[in-house]
UniProtKB/TrEMBL annotation:
Protein name: Phosphoribosylamine--glycine ligase
GO BP, one annotated term: purine nucleobase biosynthetic process
Record keyword Nucleotide-binding present: yes
EC class of the enzyme, as a word: ligase
Entry similarity comment: Belongs to the GARS family.
PROSITE patterns in the cross-refs: ATP_GRASP (PS50975), GARS (PS00184)
Organism for this UniProt entry: Peptoanaerobacter stomatis
InterPro entries documented for this protein: ATP-grasp, ATP_grasp_subdomain_1, PreATP-grasp_dom_sf, PRibGlycinamid_synth_ATP-grasp, PRibGlycinamide_synth, PRibGlycinamide_synth_C-dom, PRibGlycinamide_synth_C_sf, PRibGlycinamide_synth_CS
Taxonomy, superkingdom: Bacteria
NCBIfam families, A to Z: purD (TIGR00877)
Lineage of source species: Bacteria, Bacillati, Bacillota, Clostridia, Peptostreptococcales
Cofactor: Mg(2+); Mn(2+)
Catalyzed chemical reaction(s): 5-phospho-beta-D-ribosylamine + glycine + ATP = N(1)-(5-phospho-beta-D-ribosyl)glycinamide + ADP + phosphate + H(+)
Length: 413
């Protein structure tokens, strides 16, 4: 089988690594991939957002399956375009991807299907938004409506911060057209849990739980990032409450007629009133993928094929009864302007650890830092404590100048 994986991060490296374990896989292509994926298959120089070029490549190379890692191609309708061309593809159709592509659309979906979430208002006019927050109870959460690479959410502690956030998004257009609307929500107190689910639009199967660390520095200090680490299972997960939300989400997907043969990632917060939904993503999370797939016992390709055939209800999905921890090594300057160009040397690979490449390139047979989040170090252990120790032990075996990482991932207080 020939596989095409779309994206260039640690998530795509982890998907590729898991897929490569299947004997039926002959060749894996990555668009565009990175330094790590180059050793698993072939990186191709096609932008993930260039849907027509990707389709033409898949037809020419007779690709048997395409897996979409990153979100933008889904919102651009890659699944619809590939399906029309007779190509098999794992992901949400354009209509379903709107649950990630538009925060206001997702909130309306939750309201319609009685899915617990924070109360909210949507604004297309800056003055109306500012007028609304003048009487709001702080803190409030302000979100750009569209995709903003995980950076479009601001928790405003007071009126001035909220007003500035609205101006940044709606007037100064820091996220471009993605900020034409803002969603203003009540702030929910609680611990966050990532619940990723496999679905074929008929059945939904939650994976094991995870919790990620969004702030740049130890003790949750600094700016929000795409995620600086992750643990699985999450110690905060509430079984019944979360399963109920997954079922209600599937009910909505069915009634709306979305074709989602892929992933639904439900971002949850555990409140005193049970689990509530913060957001939907319609693809594998990053760094959640790097922590979850090392716990997956069942062959990933088998699950994907069952999903595409809408036979997920017949597919057994098993997980290792172990814990996993992922720690991100980032370039100095991230989440602002990262320092690129550092040469990375991995001196030793420790058993039960995995080094996934997020932002590297291969130059003269050497790995070079080429992004903000550069490496994802994952480890499997009998419990979080053991997995954590292995993770940091592996990091000690990596020479990466001008880098930083959080020292408190998996430190359960």
């Amino acid at each position: 089988m020939k596989i095409l994986i779309i994206g260039s991060g640690g998530r795509e490296h982890a998907i590729g690594k898991k897929i490569s374990e299947n004997k039926k896989v002959d060749k894996i292509y990555f668009a565009k991939g990175n330094g790590g994926t180059a050793s698993l298959g072939e990186n191709i120089d096609i932008n993930p957002e260039d849907i027509e070029k990707l389709r033409d490549f898949a037809l020419k190379e007779k690709i048997d399956l395409t897996i979409v890692g990153t979100e933008v191609p889904l919102t651009l309708g890659i699944v619809d375009i590939f399906n029309k061309a007779g190509l098999k593809i794992f992901g949400a159709d354009k209509a379903g991807a709107k649950l990630e592509g538009s925060k206001s659309f997702a909130k309306a979906f939750m309201k319609k299907y009685d899915i617990p979430t924070a109360s909210y208002e949507v604004f297309e006019d800056e003055k109306e938004a500012v007028s609304y927050i003048s009487t709001a109870k702080f803190p409030v959460v302000i979100k750009a409506d569209g995709l903003a690479a995980g950076k479009g959410v601001i928790i405003a502690e007071n009126f001035d911060v909220a007003k500035q956030a609205i101006k940044d998004i709606m007037v100064d257009k820091v996220f471009g057209e993605q900020g034409n609307k803002v969603v203003i929500e009540e702030f929910l107190q609680g611990k966050e849990v990532s619940l990723l689910c496999f679905t074929d639009s008929k059945t939904i199967v939650p994976m094991v739980s995870a919790s990620d660390y969004k702030k740049a520095y130890d003790n949750d200090k600094g700016l929000n990032t795409g995620g600086m680490g992750c643990i699985s299972p999450s110690p905060y997960y509430l079984d019944g409450s979360c399963d109920f939300i997954a079922k209600k989400t599937l009910e909505g997907i069915k009634k709306e007629g979305f074709d989602v043969r892929g992933i639904v990632y439900i971002g949850l917060i555990m409140t005193d009133d049970g689990a509530k939904v913060l957001e939907y993503n319609m693809r594998f999370g990053d760094p959640e993928t790097e922590v979850l797939l090392i716990r997956l016992k069942t062959d990933l390709l088998d699950i994907i094929q069952s999903s595409l055939q809408q036979k997920l209800d017949e597919q057994e999905i098993k997980w290792y009864d172990k814990s996993a921890v992922t720690v991100i090594m980032a370039a100095q300057g991230y989440p602002g302007e990262p320092k690129k160009g550092s040469i990375i040397k991995i001196n030793e690979y420790i058993d039960d650890t995995f080094v996934y490449h997020c932002g590297t390139k291969l130059e003269n047979e050497k790995y070079v830092a080429n992004g903000g989040r550069v490496l994802a170090i994952s480890a499997l252990g009998e419990d979080i404590k053991q997995a954590r120790q292995l993770c940091y032990k592996q990091i000690e075996n990596i020479d990466f100048p001008n880098s930083f990482y959080r020292k408190d991932i998996g430190e359960l207080k």
